[in-house]
Amino acid sequence: MSKLKHEQEMRERRNQDREHWRDSRHNDNSAPSSRFDELPDDFDLSGKFPGSFDDGDPQTTNLYVGNLSPQVDENFLLRTFGRFGPIASVKIMWPRTEEERRRQRNCGFVAFMNRSDAQAAKDEMQVSVPECNN
Protein backbone atom coordinates (compact mmCIF):
# COMPACT_ATOMS: atom_id res chain seq x y z
CA MET A 1 0.00 0.00 0.00
CA SER A 2 2.84 2.41 0.82
CA LYS A 3 4.36 1.80 -2.63
CA LEU A 4 1.07 2.80 -4.28
CA LYS A 5 0.86 5.90 -2.10
CA HIS A 6 4.44 6.82 -3.01
CA GLU A 7 3.66 6.40 -6.75
CA GLN A 8 0.57 8.60 -6.40
CA GLU A 9 2.58 11.29 -4.59
CA MET A 10 5.27 11.21 -7.29
CA ARG A 11 2.63 11.49 -10.04
CA GLU A 12 1.00 14.42 -8.25
CA ARG A 13 4.40 16.13 -7.86
CA ARG A 14 5.13 15.69 -11.59
CA ASN A 15 1.71 17.12 -12.48
CA GLN A 16 2.29 20.12 -10.22
CA ASP A 17 5.74 20.70 -11.74
CA ARG A 18 4.27 20.45 -15.23
CA GLU A 19 1.51 22.97 -14.39
CA HIS A 20 4.03 25.32 -12.79
CA TRP A 21 6.23 25.10 -15.88
CA ARG A 22 3.27 25.85 -18.18
CA ASP A 23 2.12 28.77 -16.03
CA SER A 24 5.58 30.30 -15.86
CA ARG A 25 5.97 29.90 -19.62
CA HIS A 26 2.79 31.86 -20.31
CA ASN A 27 3.48 34.59 -17.76
CA ASP A 28 7.09 35.32 -18.71
CA ASN A 29 7.37 37.09 -22.07
CA SER A 30 10.98 38.22 -21.63
CA ALA A 31 12.66 35.19 -23.19
CA PRO A 32 11.51 31.97 -24.79
CA SER A 33 11.88 29.16 -22.30
CA SER A 34 12.92 25.65 -22.99
CA ARG A 35 12.90 22.39 -21.06
CA PHE A 36 16.71 22.58 -21.29
CA ASP A 37 16.61 25.64 -19.04
CA GLU A 38 15.51 23.29 -16.28
CA LEU A 39 18.40 20.83 -16.45
CA PRO A 40 19.94 20.02 -13.07
CA ASP A 41 23.39 21.43 -12.24
CA ASP A 42 24.94 17.95 -12.19
CA PHE A 43 23.63 17.11 -15.70
CA ASP A 44 26.35 15.49 -17.82
CA LEU A 45 26.98 17.65 -20.89
CA SER A 46 29.89 15.53 -22.13
CA GLY A 47 27.70 13.83 -24.72
CA LYS A 48 28.02 10.41 -23.11
CA PHE A 49 24.29 9.85 -22.83
CA PRO A 50 22.66 6.42 -23.04
CA GLY A 51 21.49 5.90 -26.60
CA SER A 52 20.73 3.33 -29.22
CA PHE A 53 23.78 1.26 -28.25
CA ASP A 54 23.06 1.48 -24.53
CA ASP A 55 22.83 -1.87 -22.76
CA GLY A 56 21.58 -0.24 -19.56
CA ASP A 57 18.41 -2.33 -19.22
CA PRO A 58 19.39 -5.99 -19.11
CA GLN A 59 15.75 -7.09 -19.28
CA THR A 60 14.58 -5.14 -22.33
CA THR A 61 13.12 -7.11 -25.21
CA ASN A 62 12.34 -4.13 -27.44
CA LEU A 63 14.50 -3.43 -30.50
CA TYR A 64 14.59 -0.20 -32.49
CA VAL A 65 14.74 -0.81 -36.24
CA GLY A 66 15.76 2.20 -38.30
CA ASN A 67 16.38 3.11 -41.93
CA LEU A 68 13.45 1.04 -43.21
CA SER A 69 12.29 1.27 -46.79
CA PRO A 70 8.74 2.64 -47.12
CA GLN A 71 7.76 -0.72 -48.66
CA VAL A 72 8.58 -2.57 -45.42
CA ASP A 73 5.44 -3.28 -43.39
CA GLU A 74 4.68 -4.93 -40.05
CA ASN A 75 4.20 -8.36 -41.65
CA PHE A 76 7.63 -8.17 -43.27
CA LEU A 77 9.26 -7.28 -39.92
CA LEU A 78 7.32 -10.09 -38.25
CA ARG A 79 8.63 -12.61 -40.80
CA THR A 80 12.16 -11.22 -40.74
CA PHE A 81 12.58 -11.07 -36.96
CA GLY A 82 10.25 -13.96 -36.15
CA ARG A 83 12.96 -16.48 -36.99
CA PHE A 84 14.75 -15.44 -33.77
CA GLY A 85 11.83 -16.31 -31.49
CA PRO A 86 8.30 -15.37 -30.44
CA ILE A 87 7.40 -11.72 -30.95
CA ALA A 88 5.08 -9.75 -28.67
CA SER A 89 4.51 -6.81 -31.04
CA VAL A 90 5.75 -5.02 -34.14
CA LYS A 91 5.20 -1.32 -34.82
CA ILE A 92 6.31 0.89 -37.70
CA MET A 93 6.28 4.62 -37.12
CA TRP A 94 4.54 5.68 -40.33
CA PRO A 95 5.27 9.23 -41.55
CA ARG A 96 2.68 11.81 -40.55
CA THR A 97 3.98 14.88 -42.35
CA GLU A 98 5.06 15.59 -45.89
CA GLU A 99 8.62 16.20 -44.67
CA GLU A 100 8.73 12.73 -43.09
CA ARG A 101 7.39 11.20 -46.33
CA ARG A 102 10.12 12.90 -48.38
CA ARG A 103 12.82 11.19 -46.29
CA GLN A 104 11.80 7.87 -47.86
CA ARG A 105 12.84 5.99 -44.71
CA ASN A 106 10.87 4.81 -41.70
CA CYS A 107 11.68 3.30 -38.34
CA GLY A 108 9.95 0.86 -36.05
CA PHE A 109 10.10 -1.39 -33.01
CA VAL A 110 10.11 -5.15 -32.58
CA ALA A 111 9.28 -6.43 -29.09
CA PHE A 112 10.29 -10.03 -28.38
CA MET A 113 8.80 -12.27 -25.73
CA ASN A 114 12.19 -12.88 -24.11
CA ARG A 115 15.55 -11.16 -23.84
CA SER A 116 17.74 -13.88 -25.35
CA ASP A 117 15.80 -13.84 -28.63
CA ALA A 118 15.98 -10.04 -28.78
CA GLN A 119 19.72 -10.16 -28.16
CA ALA A 120 20.23 -12.77 -30.90
CA ALA A 121 18.26 -10.64 -33.35
CA LYS A 122 20.20 -7.51 -32.40
CA ASP A 123 23.55 -9.28 -32.76
CA GLU A 124 22.75 -10.70 -36.18
CA MET A 125 20.71 -7.87 -37.66
CA GLN A 126 22.75 -4.91 -36.33
CA VAL A 127 24.30 -4.12 -39.71
CA SER A 128 21.64 -5.64 -41.96
CA VAL A 129 19.10 -3.46 -43.74
CA PRO A 130 16.00 -5.54 -44.55
CA GLU A 131 14.53 -4.74 -47.96
CA CYS A 132 11.04 -5.74 -48.94
CA ASN A 133 10.61 -7.24 -52.40
CA ASN A 134 6.84 -7.21 -52.79
From TrEMBL:
Residues 1-28 have a biased composition (Basic and acidic residues). Pfam families: RRM_1. Keywords: RNA-binding. It comes from the Eukaryota. Residues 1-61 are annotated as: Disordered. One of its GO terms (molecular function) is RNA binding. GO terms for cellular component: nucleus. InterPro entries: Nucleotide-bd_a/b_plait_sf, RBD_domain_sf, RRM_dom, SR-CTD_assoc_factor. Residues 61-134 form the RRM domain. This is RRM domain-containing protein. It comes from Punica granatum.
